[in-house]
Amino acid sequence: MKQLIIILIAILAYIQPVMSQDKASPKKVALVLSGGGAKGVAHIGVLKVLERAGIPIDIITGTSMGSIVGGLYACGNDAMRLDSIVRSQDWSKVLSDKEDLRYQGLKERELYNTYAISTTVRLKKRRSSIGGGIIIGKNIGKLLRTFTAPYTDSIDFNTLPIRYACVATDVVDNSEQVFHSGVLSLAMRASMSIPGAFAPVRKGKQVLVDGGLRNNYPADIAKEMGADYIIGVSVASKQKTAEQLGSAADILLQIVDFNCKNKFDENMAITDIPILVNTEGYSSTSFSRAAIDTLIQRGEDAAMEHWDEIMALKEKLFPIQPKVHQQALQIPLSDNPSYKIGQLRFVNMSPSDEYFIRTKFRLKEGDSIDTERANLITTSIRLDLFYQSADFHVDRNVIMTSDGSKASRIVFIAGEKKPNKMNVGIRFDNEELVALQTNIAFPIRKRLPMQLDFTFRLGKHIKAEANWELHPLNFLHPSITLAFHRNDFNLYEYGSRSYNLTYNRLNAFAAPFTFSVRNFHFSIGAAIDYYFNYKMLLDQVIEHPMNVPKHEHFISYRAKVDYNSENDWYFPSRGSKFKAQYGYYTDNFVKLDDKVGLHELSAMWRTNIPIGKHLTIQPMFYGRLLHYDDTPFILSNIMGGEWFGHYIEQQLPFAGVGYIELQWDKFLAAQMQLQYAATSKSFIVLKFAGAQDGDKYSSILKSKTMLGSTLGYHYNAPSGPIGLSLGYSNVTKDFYFYFNLGYVF
User: Fold this and answer.
1) Distance CA 646, CA 640 (A)
2) Would you give the end-to-end CA distance of the chain in angstroms?
3) For residues 258 and 194, what is the distance between their CA atoms, to the nearest angstrom?
């Protein structure tokens, strides 16, 4: 009996620790991610290793870029998805306020690809509530909203698949602000607001900037949230020596790095597995594809150096039966979630603005809306209603509908009204030398918004233009344009100069029926053109004799169609482009020189066929047909150069012909272009073109076929494309060289 009691006591002594161990709360693992700008993409490499090891992450804290990677991971994006997200972004656009071309109309896209400099013009001083940085942060905000969906409303961050917190700095009192709740994307946006570069996030009386100024490695926050084990990742760069501090930028970054040392040593001391990533050679702005590849790999390499420690931690977490832990967060998230509309709210917008948006997009309670459409609406708020910024968030399933189901509250938030804006473009080429163009836009904020803008061009070709455009509902944009042109150019025949022509032109064009939507623009209108002060110098006997009067005028009726789905204005690799115009020209509203007026039909079509990652084939067909017995000189067909309508409205480009040449009334052409993307910004372009012309349809095929080719190298610089081309054609029977720098106008 005594022996039995001893055995029972021994069994109970063994079972008790096991039972206590089973009843004990599971240990919490926290992941701490430091700030560091672009260097923070290395965190993704560390996450890959932790997933491979099967380490459960219960808490994530982060600062700046660490808050972004950590926040996206906490709400359901695994490491491979994060890898895909950072590699697929155009970071030059994400880290700017440039409008997303997918949501812009053709006019806005043309402005964006014409002017290198844009700035606001204030007629009176006005305090801005969104100032404080060069970049407002529209695009980074949109990116964060997209990839944190469906967590777009104000929530407790402890309810995310992984508990989360991030750090910002309140510059009002230089205090640390820790976000445990709120709108997730807004908290991340505040944490990464680099002072001076990004506008701060204003929350009540707080002005929030980058959390790295107070706590760049928030391990203490993870400890306060109940972490038992901390895995920490730092991407801080080594301090530069005196010899390495050779520029103002180097000195400034060194000062910022020193300021980000707050609490770093203390927080690193409480870290169980500190992972220090080697980021030598890279900075906070290293967002190139090659840099992202290297930094993610370096993060993975740094984590693998701690593999034994990571596996030892796993043994502590699963002492009885080690197993691969399946992360609870692996929920497939949609890039474009849809929400049932229970209520629509418009913040900081007038009743007329709200009516405009509701009517234009046919919004009503009971319908559904997805993120793509919501982004389109915020773009319309900025472009049509002239707000500097616009945002939205979704309060999910907070409205009870009449049928007992739950719906969401969709809130659109407008920023300040857009100020007057000035755009400046400058270009250089070896024909016109230097040209300067300025555009000033004045938004007029009435019940029906409208805009008045002025354009001035200086160079060999002078232009002054005023345009008024109304922004009513249903995509209609009636407009009136008044313009003065002073043109001075040479006309060639077969490579030899025939004319030098100068003239003035006054033009008025009214388009009451103008329909615009995304990639499509259609207009019907009437124009009055008055040409005067013709001066022509004849250099040789010519094939196309022209009689130029001292002055002449035309009254015309025009219908235009413009479609453009290409993914880039100058160097597209996808999409198509189509333009067509019909015009009827008279001098008395009905006839021209007492005869039936001149009919004009012009069209061009181009498509892009990608072959692999670098090569794009771009076939194009175009032409212009005139129907009149004696076409006025100023309306005649003109061929040559690189672009449509560059020197004169009816100019048709042709590979291998550098200068503009006179052509007969019927002109048809085809071009095959091969575009090779050597890098993301460098392109080698080879063009082959052929054309037929004639004074009648019957003579088109009988005329000699014109052939030409061009080989060029182009660099897509931020200030506009830089191009170098060499061409040859059987029209000129000579080589031509062309160099240009800057956007085309």
Assistant:
1) 10
2) 106
3) 15
Most confident by average pLDDT, 19-23, 131-135, 709-713: 709-713
Residue 606 clears pLDDT 60, i.e. is over it: yes
Band of pLDDT at residue 66, cut at 50, 70 and 90: very high
CA 633 to mean position of chain CA atoms? 43
pLDDT in tens, 608-648: 999 998 999 999 999 999 999 889 989 999 999 999 998 88
Q: Print burial letters for 267-306: b (CB count within 10 Å at least 16), e (below 16).
A: bbeebbbbbebebeebbbebbeeebbebbbebbbebbbeb
Question: Residue 33's Cα: distance from chain center in Å?
Answer: 28
Query: What torsion, rounded to 10 degrees, do the Cα atoms 489, 647, 507, 635 define?
Result: 80
Q: For residue 474, what pLDDT is reported?
A: 65
pLDDT over threshold 90, residue 30: yes
- CA atoms of 201 and 189, how far apart (whole Å): 7
Distance CA 584, CA 652 (A): 19
β partners of residue 491 = 499
Question: Cα(437)–Cα(61) distance, rounded to whole angstroms?
Answer: 49
List all residues 6 or more positions away from 398 whose beta carbon is below 8 Å from its beta carbon: 153, 342, 406, 408, 409
Q: Write out the E strands in 445-588.
A: 450-458, 462-470, 479-493, 496-517, 520-538, 551-564, 576-586
Backbone angles phi, psi at 53, to 5 degrees: -80, -15
Beta strand pairing status for 273-276 and 229-234?
A: parallel
Overall pTM surpassing 0.90 (yes/no)? no
Given a cut of 90, is residue 333 above it in pLDDT? no
Closest by CA to 709, choosing from 742, 685, 744, is 685
Provide CB contacts within 8 A for 543, sequence distance 6+: 493, 662
Cβ count within 10 A of residue 164? 27
Task: Give the number of residues written for the chain.
Answer: 745
Query: How far is residue 581 CA from its own chain's centroid?
Result: 30
pLDDT digits (tens, 9 = 90+) for 93-127: 788 777 666 666 788 888 889 998 887 776 665 55
* Per-residue tokens: 596: 């039936």
